[in-house]
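Posted in: Structural Biology > Protein-Ligand Complexes

Title: Requesting predicted complex, DAU in pocket

I'd be grateful if someone could produce the 3D structure tokens for the following input. Sequence and ligand are given below.
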Amino acid sequence: MQNNMKLLVTGGAGFIGSNFVHHILDTYPEYEVVVLDALTYAGNLESLKKFEHESRYRFVKGDITDASLVDELVVECDIVVHFAAESHVDRSILEPSIFIKTNVLGTQVLLEAARKYNKRFHHVSTDEVFGALGPHDEPFNEHTPYDPRSPYSASKAASDHLVEAYFHTYNLPITISNCSNNYGPYHFPEKLIPLAITNLIEGKNIPVYGDGRQVRDWLHVKDHCRAIDMIIHNGHIGETYCVGGDGERENIWIVKNILKEMGLGEERLEYVKDRAGHDRRYAINHDKITRELGWKPEIALEEGLKETIAWFQENKGWWQAVKDGSYQEYYENQYIKR
Ligand code: NAD
Ligand code: DAU
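-- Reply #1 --
Done. Output follows.
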């Protein structure tokens, strides 16, 4: 790949996208980044503030379903790194339509522009497309059949299939990554870890769905960004890579660990109604990306959690602004009216 590369990063004002923009601009002094983001409730320009006067960075507010805008931006880049999505499972249960529009239609609009100008395309997807594991099942890998079970995961599965279809049908130079649950700085406080930390700082309790024994495989967002970096530079065209954190834990372990680190007791746990169709366990076997590209997770979960708690304690301004407004209305419907 050339020394200077121009990346179009969709969803770059969201959690993982903004961490990825930091990673790229901090690691590659010659690279340029254009962020295309609609600034939905989950997008936040504060997460990219560090770069606002940087000539190698440009922000464009816009929707990935806007074909003419997408066309204009794709033609001038070398690679599209596609993060933009509706990402929250609970919201997809309340209102699925926007998930279909953004995640399915939006991805197809981007693919069409990439096809027109024959651009490299990396699609960021999720392990949720593989369904749910039992306690003794082998972790997901690149050969696991698709079995999505929520409107969110079904929309991501559809987008993965479209990306594959553009490779097989049009030879579009694509790669896909399916990763497990990320955590770290700039994580929107509707998701379990940032919600737990920020609720505790605010004097509220942590809502635990069902029995709290569901398992997720936690991956530090910085490890994830390094994996995407390796895939866009050295990944094999047409291939999928599973990216996991070696961080399988029950939700109850996660929230008790956060309580312990923050010096608080278990009376701050509040067991609430379970998520509809709640997937019991996700876990990833990342042997392929380790073997082919030399990637492995480097941030141990206990360390990463400590660092993440400290980040939320030190960046109250970032998340307090985010927790106001329309988010508050969603949150009250989600938990308090149960
Ligand atoms: P996020 O919700 O924090 O951010 C999504 C971003 O996309 C926001 O900035 C939002 O404004 C933007 N966006 C939404 N709709 C848009 C549209 N129509 N046009 C342009 N921009 C739009 O999400 P995230 O957690 O950072 O996830 C990023 C990607 O990674 C998603 O594709 C998600 O499916 C995938 N993923 C996330 C995780 C995780 O643990 N967070 C794990 C696996 C995969
Ligand atoms: O596995 C990858 C996926 O991880 C991504 O594709 C999604 O975009 C991302 O949101 C995440 O999905 P989850 O549903 O696993 O994440 P969430 O943080 O919402 O929930 C994690 C677990 O914690 C899950 O079992 C539900 C539970 N939970 C969640 C919330 C918000 C609670 O017990 N209480 C809560 O308040």
